[in-house]
Design brief:
With about 625 residues, the protein is α+β, with helices and mostly antiparallel strands. About 25% of the residues lie in helices and about 25% in strands. The protein has a 9-stranded parallel β-sheet with strand order 25-24-22-18-14-13-12-27-26. The protein has a 6-stranded antiparallel β-sheet with strand order 28-29-30-35-32-33. A 5-stranded antiparallel β-sheet has the order 1-11-8-7-4. A hairpin with a 4-residue loop joins strand 7 and strand 8. Helix 5 crosses helix 10. The longest helix is centred in the C-terminal third of the chain and has 28 residues. The protein is globular, with a radius of gyration of 25 Å. The two termini are about 35 Å apart. The chain binds ligand MIG. The site of ligand MIG has 10 residues, from loops.
């Protein structure tokens, strides 16, 4: 049962698709105050949710903020990442879900300040509050998901393996990546193009010197079985004669300052304007621009820098230049030095700057900070609405998001690092995002920032083969991370092949989660709610109906403890042909897991079919091999 409460005069966000009649009396379990509400939670309650956030799966014990942020350091002291997903579940004495629907900043004190009190503070106190009561976790999520509408369903090929790098600088480099994968029999479906395929970082252009005859190149790759997936950035370069710029200015499609001029910010190309994605005409216009690439055969995109990420605003840059000059002849002591340094550092993603520009949102003017969390969402929506008008399926995922965006595309988990703790974060984040409707998601496998070691890549792949978006991506300046760069390439190949024999299982489980508003990946507590031990386990994951996984994510670990909430059949896969099976009883087991082994547990009464697609397994005779657990 969903109850809705309207506090103040909420701004429309587009998150929900059902119109629920508001209650006339405020709910009595919460104590409301001017800028939010609070309530007591039981000492044993678990708090799930919040989608993209740091720390564990149980969100209890920290403060999180919904404030879409470009932050490439995903560590425990962070409050916000790229998305705003204001949905959480209390699970324990009472079970219910809470959705705080508002486009501006919200802070969730999850029994951090005071052990038994959960407190939600809003920067602007107008919001819709939805409370979802149901007896099971699955039902709470299902009801919430019915409220926010069906999740985005990507094309089937988007479940293949993708290779990315910031950047592959020209078409020959891309050809080489594809060729080496082929030569080594490593399955590959997608190669991602990062910002350097564009001419001067201008959206909807191609650098013809580096990618000559792009249309034919796209075709050539397609005949190799590879789809190219270009990036699109939020900022539009200011340049006379550039159509996107000219049209945006002429039609007032860019965000404006108080004086009515288009705000000038700095991103990749230097000075840019930001499209006003909250303006439906601008959205339509920008969405149509994707046609530049679609007409060249492109079938998928990733949207970046749409928090929006801002290197600087022109106004602040000018004032900083003025200000730093006064430090020139000073003795820069401890205070002065940091003041000086911060003056420059604060140029980027400065919250004050979000207060200096405006949107035309359904004909009304809103200052950016008030509707901040809707920006990336509406960029995805711009693309998604255009793609819906086509008769082709298009892959779309974004960096920034708000609930509602899950209907138009997926998200990737942003600039993680080649750290062991980020495999773990990837696991929690994926389950939490699933609760909020973001099913098509995954992290940069191997890690984006920093250098990846062979063992980290192996372990990450062993989990990554289960994430719907399976992409190996890494940053400029880091160790090259294509699996053929490592001396354990053949082990990595076998792991990637396991993804391919699981493809039908993964695709069907995913589709079912979309159709039934359930979770593709979920914690054990969802299915084994009476099992006290299962409830507290965060690092084992149910994937679809038939299997459970227990990834190894600790450096130098050669095994791990696994808790089985019922008898299951363990499969230890060293390759698609070398599979050890063993039935294990309910309870705790220490399981050896060598660096090249993938663990899968088949639930009692279930069957897992491995399917060998012609495209990658032409020499295999039996196209389906079944493993069952019947006890
Ligand atoms: O961090 O386009 O998250 O995937 O490679 C700089 C360059 C901007 C951020 C994205 C990352 C991408 C990178 N971008």
């Amino acid at each position: 049962m969903i109850k809705r409460y309207i506090l103040g005069e909420p701004i429309y966000t587009g998150a929900v698709v059902r119109d629920i009649k508001a209650e006339s009396v405020l709910c009595e379990i919460f104590e409301f105050y001017e800028n939010g509400f609070k309530f007591d939670i039981d000492k044993d309650d678990i708090v799930y949710g919040l989608g993209q956030a740091v720390r564990g799966l149980n969100k209890r014990g920290y403060i999180y903020q919904s404030k879409c942020s470009d932050d490439p350091v995903h560590i425990e002291n962070k409050y916000s990442l790229y998305g705003a997903h204001n949905f959480f579940i209390i699970y324990g004495k009472k079970n219910f879900g809470v959705f705080v629907d508002t486009p501006s900043k919200v802070s969730f004190d999850m029994a951090f300040t005071s052990t038994d009190e959960l407190k939600v503070d809003l920067e602007y106190s107008d919001y819709n509050l939805y409370i979802i009561e149901a007896s099971t976790l699955t039902e709470i999520v299902q009801e919430f998901r019915q409220l926010i509408g069906k999740s985005y369903m990507p094309p089937k090929w988007a479940f293949g393996y993708g290779q990315s790098r910031w950047s592959y600088y020209n078409s020959d480099e891309v050809r080489e990546v594809v060729k080496i994968h082929k030569e080594n029999d490593i399955p590959l479906d997608m190669v991602y193009l990062d910002i350097d395929y564009m001419k001067d970082y201008k959206d909807f252009t191609i650098n013809e010197d580096l990618f000559p005859d792009f249309e034919n190149f796209v075709k050539e790759m397609k005949t190799e079985g590879i789809r190219l997936i270009p990036i699109i950035d939020a900022g539009v370069k200011i340049e006379k004669g550039y159509d996107v710029y000219e049209e945006g200015v002429a039609n007032n499609y860019f965000c404006k300052k108080a004086d009515g001029s288009d705000i000038i910010c700095g991103v990749w190309p230097g000075e840019v304007h930001f499209p006003d994605f909250l303006n439906s005409d601008a959205r339509k216009w920008f969405g149509n621009k994707y046609d530049f690439l679609i007409s060249k055969g492109i079938e998928g995109f990733w949207n970046d820098m749409n928090e929006p990420a801002i290197f600087y605003t022109k106004d602040r840059l000018e004032s900083v230049f003025d200000e730093i000059d006064k430090y020139r002849d000073m003795n820069l002591d401890i205070y002065k030095f940091f003041e000086f340094k911060d003056t420059v550092a604060n140029l980027s993603n400065n919250e004050e700057d979000y207060k200096t520009f405006y949107h035309n949102y359904d004909g009304k003017k809103y200052r950016h900070d008030i509707v901040h969390n809707l920006y990336g969402y509406n960029m995805t929506r711009a693309a998604g609405e255009y793609f819906d008008s086509l008769d082709k399926e298009i892959l779309m995922f974004s960096r920034s998001s708000y609930i509602g965006a899950h209907r138009y595309g997926g998200i990737w988990q942003g600039d993680n690092c080649s750290w062991w703790s980020h495999i773990e974060l990837n696991m929690y984040m994926t389950m939490s995002l699933n609760m909020a409707g973001f099913l098509y998601t995954g992290a940069d496998i191997g890690g984006f920032g920093d250098n990846c070691s062979p063992d980290l890549m192996l372990r990450w792949l062993e989990f990554g083969i289960f994430t719907p978006l399976m992409r190996n991506h890494s940053a400029l300046g880091t160790r090259r991370q294509e699996v053929y760069q490592f001396d354990n390439m053949s082990d990595m190949r076998e792991i990637i092949k396991i993804r391919y024999v699981l493809m039908d299982y993964i695709y069907n489980a995913f589709k079912k989660a979309v159709d039934n508003n359930t979770m593709y990946m979920r914690p054990l507590s969802f299915d084994y709610s009476n099992d006290i031990a299962a409830r507290r386990i965060e690092d084992q994951i149910l994937v679809g109906d038939s299997i459970m996984i227990a990834p190894v994510y600790k450096q130098n670990a050669l095994g791990r403890m696994v808790y089985l909430p019922e008898t299951m059949k363990m499969l230890k896969l060293r390759s698609v042909h070398d599979i050890e099976e063993k039935v294990l009883e309910k309870g705790y087991h220490y399981i050896d897991v060598a660096l090249n082994e993938v663990l899968i547990f088949i639930r009692n009464g279930e069957t897992l079919s491995l399917s060998f697609d012609e495209k990658y397994f032409s020499s295999v005779k039996d196209k389906i091999i079944e493993y069952s657990c019947e006890v």
